[in-house]
Each structure stands twice: as C-alpha cells, then as structure tokens.
Predict the structure.
Amino acid sequence: MITEELIELTNWILDKKTERQDLEIKAAHGGCPKRLYDTLSSFSNQDGGGVLFFGIDEKEGFKLTGVYDLQDLQKKVVEQCNQMVPPVRAVFTVAEVDGVDVCSAEIPGLELSERPCYYKGAGRLKGAYTRVGDADMVMTEYELYSYEAFRKHLHDDERPIDRAMLEDLDAGILGSYMQAKKAERPGFAQLSENRAYELMDVVRNGKPTLAAVMNMGIYPQGFMPQLCITAVVVPGNDIGDTDEQDIRFLDNKRIEGTLSEQVAEAIAFCKRNMKTRTIIDKQTGMRKDIDEYPIAAIREAILNAVVHRDYSIYTEGTPVQLVLYRDRMEIHSPGNLYGRMTVDQLGVARPNLRNPALATMAESLTRAENRYSGIPTMRREMKQHGLPEPVFENRRNEFVVTFFNSQVSEKSGEPVDIEPCYDAASLLEFCRTPRTRAEIKEFMNLGTFSYIYNRYIVQLVESGQMKLTLPDKPRSVKQRYQTVQ
C-alpha cells in the first residue's frame, strides 16, 4: 500500500476500533512485539494474505500510540518472518499520523502448493495457524492434511475399505454399471473382470474402494457408520429452540444407504416437512401452489454435499447435515472447498474434483450431471421461485448452503397462505373415526407425532375441522382425534 492508504487505514481503525479477517493490530510504542509467528502463519495461509498494523494499542481502547523506532521495528519483524517455513516476505509502509509514526507490514498469501506456512521453532503440527475472524487458531490435522492431499493429488474416494469384499456390493448395480462402461469403451471387454474393476476404481488391491461402497454397497454404513445424512426440523430459527410442548425437533431422521438412496430419502424428508405457498391470482381467481423451496435446488445442494464432501479419515465420522429452520434450510457438508476454489468462483470457474471416482459413479447412478451446473441451477431455481439468493459459506472444516424461504409473493408483494404439503382432506377423512396418536402416525407414515400435531392437527383444531375427545387433557394417553361432522 502507499502512504495515503496507510493513513486512511489508520483513521478507519481509530473510527471502527476493530480488527478484521485480514487485519491484525499491534502496539509497538514500547518495542517490537515478540511473537508475530501466529499471525504471520495465518495470513500466509489465507487467500489475499493480510496486514499487520503497528502503532495503535488495542488494550488502551485503540489509542494511537505510534511505534518506538521505524527502522528497528522493520528489522525485527523481518527476523521473525525469516523464522517461518517458507520464509515470509513482508512489504512495509510507514506514515505519520497526528504527529506519531505508524507502520504496516503486508503479508502475501502463499500459493496453495506452498501451504501451510508455519513457525520453524514449533514445527508443522503446532506452528501452522489459520485465521478465524480476527483470531489466529492452530490448524487441525485435517486442515494440514487437506493441503497435502491437494498437493499430492490424493483422492480419498479411491482408498480401499479393508473390511469390505466384492460380495458386499450390490451385484445388480455393479453389473449394470460395468456393462454401461464397457458399452462406452469397447476395449474393456478384452480385459479380465478384476483388471476392469481396478481401472474403473471399483477395487484397489482386491478391496472395494470407498467410491464403490458408497455408490453400490448393500449397506455402506456397516463399514462407515457416519457417512450418512442426519436431517432435523427445528421449530424455531436456531438450534435449541423448542415449541409449546418443549419439543426440540419436529422431525428427526438418520438417512442411510447408498448415495442415490440418501439423496432420494433426503428429498422426501424435505417434501414432507416443507410448506406450500399458495398464490391466488386476483384477475382470474385461479390458485397456484408453490413449494416452500424449489425441489430442483434442494436436489442439487444435497447431491453436491454427498458427492463433493471430504471423505478422508479425518471427516468420516461427520455426517452431512440437513437442517430445516422456520426461516431457512441449511445443508452442511464436511470439508472446505477443495483446492483453489473460492466462494466467489462458485458457478463461474471450473473446480478441481476432490472425489473423481465417486463423482463418475454418481453421475451414472444418481443422474448427477457432474458438469458444474449445480450452483447455477440453485441460483436460477431460487430466483424463479421469488426467493432470496442462496448463501454459500466456506466455514472452518465445512461448506454450508443456505436457502431462505419467503411468505411474500414477488409478483403481488402481498402475503400468501401457507398450507401443509400433506393432503389435510385425507387426514380428516381418516379421523371420521376417533384415532390414536399411533394410528395417525402409521397412516401418515411419519415417525414423530409432535411434528404431525404442530404441523397439521393444531391448524385443523383451530379451524374447527377437528376436535380432541379429551379437550381438558390434551396429553392424555387415552386422547383421540376426531373430525368434526
């Protein structure tokens, strides 16, 4: 930066009194700070680097104190930079503000292939840091491994699962997949079956790969229990919110199976827990029902989560999470964005594939296009439904997609009615005979009665279409629910 920019930055700090993801403030009126290694490492390990600012004392309420000696400060900062691996090359700028000297040291971000940058005296495991907000945090083993995996082109989806055998794969799915590949590449017919399996990443050293188990396994979770989807419906806008009956989750399901089975069941979970926006055209009086969230966008988000998540040993204990709040839906995928991809490049730049073998199989078995169209599809579908732009976040050790809902029609600007996706008329017909909780759960094929009660029965009772046989004892085990004749 030039002198004028440093003066402008100084005034910004004095006004805002805060640090940032790319800004660390250090007091230096009494000498050079003795330990800059953590920040030198974290700035070097993030895209865009960061700025070390010397001359304001945060502990004194962001007081402008200046630096003790500009020349000596720069010399000693450089000495600390040279203790880093690889060495950090800081760019210094000095200026005078209100009669005192201030100094900045710009720390460039390293190329991905050179990361992590760490303090030589602490070693790679304890001396590598990452920036989280305005704090420097020691890198986890997973974060260190992710750099190594990208640099060495390691693909965890191709690793063999030691306890698995070929007979643990669904023979029908495997046969159809191999037949399709042989049709695409006739030369495969000349190879032995085992060699074809190796070339198609179905096996490694005679053992099924993770990609094969997750796409074709009879029961993948028998080998990796947490490679699944956990789906919950929260009655409020934050985890921990409860409803009037102190119920924490209106619906809660662990979704297992192959990737295609997980995707299908997760979409079904969303469908039964979503509301329907009903728009009445003022001109024609015609009614139009619109899902709370577009199914095509949900499908792409869930597919991306299971196909592009991190499958290393460091994250195989973490499932994909699907959370429906009152105002939004979140899909959490273990692992950061892979390689050089940033959030700003999503849907624009062509990404590196973290799981090429798994993605290739999923393309055949889940109809995933694998043509980098997922993000544009989500954005397009949300826009067409009059909903806010999806939010993509590359959080520490996870990638999160958030869809926000809306109860306002973009066309009319007026509130719309919200109705359950389930056909209430069928429930009313079923309850012409007084029904127990268990009977209603079985009829609706839902495992949680609190969800049924809050989503359907409350509305029907309030509208006078249904009644409780024991209205003074709503929680009685003898309670029955009956349609008002």
Q: What stands out?
A: The first helix runs from residue 3 to 16. The longest strand covers residues 100-107. The chain has four domains: 3-139, 156-220, 229-404, 422-483. Confidence is low (pLDDT under 50) at residues 407-422.
